[in-house]
Q: What sequence folds into this?
């Protein structure tokens, strides 16, 4: 069983949480792939440079200057810092963007209508499982190397693209699931999907597609949780064995929200 684990930017930005997560990750049995965010740091960097982060439905609108910033943050500090922590914890790791070894390709997202208004996302990429080089990832895993992916990918025409890390994790899991048993785990700063976003004890144990539709209609899940759940159900539909959403500190514990077909 291959574990594809995604860690959220709020954890990456918290040194104590990140250190504990890395320790727990390094202790896992079997081959693992890590996908990390870094949006909190990227937004902080934008503000420091006098820019205002623009998010639409949980996804960052990325003009050329924003692309430079997120590339520096995600593919620079975040990825290399996590790889260094993993090395210190005894797990050999390599930090990769999608352009490295052509491991993940993305298509630039065309302008689209959101809530009746046209939105140009700029240098934002949409990733699909077909754009993931699963064989290369399997070669790394067979060699005892843990791939650590950030949110920067490319379109094969020389353009870097900022992609949603939740989507990357889902597509990597989908691609690997065509070759072997695969589990997808989303780790972030909450104990799971919450019925009440302000009450951390209101964890929903399991969610089906029908129940997800109800939660969206009631406004109980919104913003950044939407792409996470959309990607979770896409993974299940594509053959990933299981998907769990949980707190980063519960990586080794059998708790959180489980997604069912």
A:
């Amino acid at each position: 069983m291959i574990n594809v684990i995604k860690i959220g930017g709020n954890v990456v930005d918290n040194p104590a949480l990140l250190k504990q997560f890395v320790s727990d990750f390094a202790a896992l049995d079997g081959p693992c792939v890590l996908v990390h965010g870094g949006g909190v740091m990227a937004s902080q960097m934008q503000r420091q440079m006098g820019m205002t982060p623009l998010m639409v439905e949980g996804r960052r609108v990325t003009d050329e200057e924003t692309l430079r910033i997120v590339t520096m943050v995600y593919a620079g500090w975040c990825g290399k810092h996590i790889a260094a922590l993993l090395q210190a914890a005894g797990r050999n790791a390599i930090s990769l963007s999608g352009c490295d070894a052509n491991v993940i390709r993305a298509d630039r997202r065309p302008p689209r209508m959101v809530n009746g208004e046209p939105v140009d996302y700029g240098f934002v990429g949409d990733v699909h499982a077909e754009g993931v080089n699963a064989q290369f990832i399997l070669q790394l895993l067979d060699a005892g190397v843990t791939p650590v992916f950030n949110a920067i990918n490319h379109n094969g025409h020389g353009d870097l693209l900022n992609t949603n890390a939740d989507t990357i994790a889902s597509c990597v899991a989908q691609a690997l699931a065509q070759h072997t048993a695969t589990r997808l785990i989303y780790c972030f700063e909450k104990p799971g999907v919450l019925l009440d976003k302000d009450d951390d004890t209101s964890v929903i144990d399991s969610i089906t597609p029908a129940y997800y539709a109800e939660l969206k209609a009631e406004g109980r899940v919104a913003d950044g949780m939407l792409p996470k759940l959309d990607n979770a159900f896409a993974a299940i539909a594509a053959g990933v064995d299981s998907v769990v959403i949980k707190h980063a500190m519960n990586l080794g514990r059998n708790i959180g929200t489980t997604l069912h077909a």
